[in-house]
Amino acid sequence: MCETLLVAACYYGAGRLGLSQQLVADGAVVTPVYPPTGVALACLLLFGVRCLPGIAVGALLVVASLTAPGLSAVGVVIGNTAAPLCALLLLRAVGFRVSLSRLRDGLALVFLGALTAMLISSGAGVGILVLTDKLATDDVWLVWLAWWVGDAMGVVIVTPLLLLLHRARLPPPSGRWGEAAGLTLVVCVLVPLVTYSSVSVLFLVFPILIWAALRFQLAGGMPCALFASVVATVAARDEAGSFGRLTDVETMMKLQAFNGTLGLTALLLSAVISEQLNTRRSVERACHELVEALQHLNAGGPGSTGAPGRDGR
């Protein structure tokens, strides 16, 4: 019961946080990044299907905070619960590792856990709204696209960060602490400046993101991507900086393209670097073991053990 309540509380908190950054496009309210999908999938990957009741309760609380309970609310809750469960089953089927230490893990999370599984939540949600006459048919594709991308970006950006935090350990003091502090300062200063600049220079965020992913893998890339996504979402909501003088639809499309590219770059580049580092460590370990084996064989040879030679002495 305590675990169910905790998962529900985390889901609800993430839902309210995501809904606080809503955008309006042609009269439809959209959420560029919906964190609860990432929270739900991370809980399922870490603790198993026993988290499903908590996810369902959390989804019901989020929906109840927006509209009166009814058939549409039930449909949305079912879709938001089934989508992360489907993502879990798909990821288990391909041997997904929560360490995200291989490129195949990053690709599986993006294409199976995010883009494929979240078709369920977006399809169920939009479908039930159409069936209950709460959504005009002219807005179906726009709302569906925004719903699908928002849920998918929640998985791409939030799930890796939660998986990382679950296994995080404080590293020993080293010279990289200075680089980490410098990177944090650059991100906190430069990302808002670039985002709120009257000149559209959002692309300048990507060299910083690449630096973070190359040097610190997921621990650097995903927080950087999340921070940039939040800053860009706030700027888009305020129609400021790079998102000024755009129509509602243009703002939504630009923001979702930016967030999607951020998440994919951080996740996949971090996975590639981690896989290369793990391969190098494995090779070094194998070479070290081979050297030890050779030394052991040499130490056991006739010349070093004092065994008698051919003349018997």
Mean pLDDT: 85
Number of DSSP strand runs: 2
H/E series:
HEEHHHHHHHHHHH
Q: pLDDT under 50 segments (min length 5)?
A: none
Quaternary form: single chain
Instruction: Report strand %.
Output: under 5%
Keywords: Cell membrane, Membrane, Transmembrane, Transmembrane helix
Membrane topology: Multi-pass membrane protein
Domain MASE1: 5-276
Pfam families: MASE1
Structure summarized in a few sentences:
With 313 residues, this protein is mostly helical. Helices cover 73% and strands 2% of the residues. The chain has one domain (2-166, 178-297).
Keywords:
313 residues, mainly alpha, two-stranded antiparallel sheet, 2 strands, 73% helix, globular
Strands, helices and their partners?
Elements: H1 2-19, E1 23-25, E2 28-30, H2 35-47, H3 52-64, H4 71-93, H5 103-116, H6 118-131, H7 140-166, H8 176-195, H9 205-216, H10 218-237, H11 248-299, H12 302-305
Antiparallel strand pairs: 1-2
Helix pairs in contact: 1-2, 1-3, 2-4, 2-7, 3-4, 4-5, 4-6, 5-7, 5-11, 6-7, 7-10, 7-11, 8-9, 8-10, 9-10, 9-11, 10-11
